[in-house]
Specification:
279 residues, mainly alpha, 3-stranded antiparallel beta sheet, 4% strand, elongated
């Protein structure tokens, strides 16, 4: 009887590992919708908003827009978690969406503003453009990968349950150590696949493709120690952005925020504001 449990455990683990590998391969090399640079061409340059999306998704874009306006004194982000409009002027589509998310009252909880801004049409259009360029993962690829990893975790629990059931139902005199050693094989396979997936797919696997990761690594390598820097030569540039690709003016820590998140902000008050619930 214990062989039946072992067969079921191995089958479940093998299918789960195969699904993770297939989803990871599809996420690493999604089909390109729009024509991109040919082999040997110069990599495209990222705006700070595009850098934020590839690093942290729509939520990171919202944080960049909020902090950009706060650092220019057009928005007040209180450590209590409230955003207050000081100067109702937006310099790009994302800042205008931020003002719209705050509303006519001029004040709103930061989590609510961030959530509405992350779902704004401007953010969706930017995401669609990055997906079409082969730099960002489509929604389906992200969901497929997360579902595959979740199935792998479930398979590990199934193997543990099958091993316990097999040990309980094994005939008397059966070598429990040898029996459990057989069940250790699918456990080793599952944990190795999980570890490899975590190692290979971090830190940008939730949003960026392999091509997007390459551009992000270049952004990190070009980021000066004090944080403002450039994103692929454009995020901190004072030149006017190309139509449809807005980029805010360079302000301290903005690129660091786009790449690393709120923890990279030098201002503790801004960090507290972004982490606060606003309750």
């Amino acid at each position: 009887m214990w062989l039946f449990f072992l067969l079921a455990a191995c089958t479940a683990m093998g299918l789960s590992c195969a699904r993770v590998c297939r989803a990871a391969a599809a996420a690493a090399h999604p089909p390109r919708v729009a024509p991109g640079p040919q082999e040997g061409d110069r990599d495209p340059e990222l705006t700070v908003y595009e850098t934020a999306y590839l690093s942290g998704g729509p939520r990171r874009i919202a944080e960049v827009a909020l902090v950009s306006m706060a650092q220019q004194r057009r928005l007040l982000l209180a450590h209590t978690g409230w955003a207050t409009v000081v100067v109702p002027v937006g310099r790009d589509a994302f800042e205008l969406a931020t003002l719209a998310a705050i509303g006519d009252g001029g004040q709103r909880r930061i989590p609510a503003v961030r959530g509405e801004l992350a779902a704004a049409d401007e953010v969706r259009k930017l995401a669609d453009r990055l997906v079409a360029s082969g730099l960002a993962l489509p929604d389906g690829a992200r969901k497929s990968l997360s579902d595959a990893v979740r199935q792998l975790k479930g398979a590990l629990l199934l193997v543990a349950a099958a091993a316990a059931a097999a040990a309980w139902m094994a005939p008397s005199g059966t070598d429990d150590g040898l029996l459990l050693a057989w069940f250790a094989l699918p456990v080793i396979l599952g944990t190795a696949t999980w570890s490899l997936a975590r190692g290979e797919l971090r830190p940008y696997a939730n949003w960026a493709t392999t091509a997007g990761e390459r551009l992000l690594r270049r952004v990190v390598s070009e980021e000066p120690p004090d944080g403002p820097g450039r994103a692929g030569g454009r995020a901190g540039s004072r030149r006017h952005p190309a139509p449809g690709r807005p980029s805010p003016a360079p302000v301290p820590s903005l690129l660091s925020l786009a790449v690393h998140g709120p923890a990279a902000l030098a201002d503790p008050a801004l960090r507290a504001a972004l982490h606060s619930s606003g309750a």
